[in-house]
Amino acid sequence: MKIEASPAPAQIRGFRFSGVHGGIKKKGRRDFALIVSDHPCACAAVFTRNRCAAAPVVVAREHVSSGRVQAIMINSGNANCATGEQGLKLARWSCDELAGRLGVAPGLVLPCSTGVIGVQLDHRVMARAISLGVDALSRRGFAAAARAILTSDAFPKWASRTLRINDCEVTVAAMAKGAGMIEPQMATMLAFVLTDAKLSGDAARSILESSVSTSFNRISVDGDTSTNDTCVLMASAEAPGVAIDGPASNGYEVLARAVAEVLDEVSRMIVRDGEGATKMVDLMVTGAADDAEADRVARRVANSPLVRTALAGADPNWGRIVMALGNTDARFELTALELDVGEVALVRAGTVISDDAVAAARRVMKRDAYSMTIRLGAGAGRATIVTSDLTEEYVRFNSAYTS
């Protein structure tokens, strides 16, 4: 179920990019990326809620608190997590090193890492990677950077939109990586959204938090939240037009919609690229008491190994969903439950309609993308989680990891 992203944006005003092989990964694969703006710019970020946050997450949280950033440095192949004081020193040193090469303040650099956990990053390798990355910076380096941040991904993930705000052209582009250890709670997921719009720090935070809640925080590949998850929005302000300071500003809604769209697009690529995945399923829960209850139910069903192996086998096994529902705190009557698989009505009043319905549902479940809708009752609560199936390939891949 592998897909290729649409063509990468040629360039985004105010930004340079690079993606190089610095020596962290084997066989000459790209493993170091830079995203650098021409000037300090408005920035917002959200990070993993995993309590074992990696060293670069600790440092990036500190640096982004000012709301101004000029460079993002990303290495793949090593998460720099569970590396103690040495790992934290390396993250801080790398910001100082890159800042010196760029002629900027260290606090304007955000470090990000992804890859194997519990292994120290080599200081000399990082120094070489930083040097090569700075030398390779280019207005047209977006695609190279997007490829350099990958780990177990099968393909690069990016999306872009060109829109008009007050008769001025504005670009929004996102790149992301992730295929396993995915249930963002803000997730080995990294994402970077770039725009040339004139955006204040407050507006950037509002747009990013809203967009993440409807994209990355609505996907699950295996139910595990990474130690390194980071999503950053940078706005270079190089596009002409008036500044967007908040929801009341002209252009805010248009820009917020574009950011939400590109993040939804790349987050779905992550699910499609889930390690060993062959199916992408929009699991929708409706009729709950409220949205929070619907979300809890959807996550419990989507993350059930028994349900997800049934997805892998195209088996419309209603009993597995009943089991998962019964392990939630949702208020419902079994005799009132309904289930649709795609366009097929499979369950009504808590029972499977017919053998013909089962056969029709099985045909739907053989597709590589479809929806399942669970109706709990007559409540107004609803939620959607985009998930994947669980296959033997996932187990094989995660029984050992090599970068």
Q: Briefly, what is this?
A:
The protein has 403 residues and is an alpha+beta fold. It has helices at 55-64, 84-102, 123-135, 142-148, 201-213, 252-272, 291-302, 305-312, 318-326, 355-365, 392-398, and strands at 15-20, 32-47, 68-78, 109-116, 157-165, 168-177, 190-195, 219-220, 230-235, 280-288, 338-341, 344-348, 351-352, 369-375, 381-388.
SSE inventory with pairings:
Elements: E1 15-20, E2 32-47, H1 55-64, E3 68-78, H2 84-102, E4 109-116, H3 123-135, H4 142-148, E5 157-165, E6 168-177, E7 190-195, H5 201-213, E8 219-220, E9 230-235, H6 252-272, E10 280-288, H7 291-302, H8 305-312, H9 318-326, E11 338-341, E12 344-348, E13 351-352, H10 355-365, E14 369-375, E15 381-388, H11 392-398
Helix pairs in contact: 1-2, 2-3, 5-6
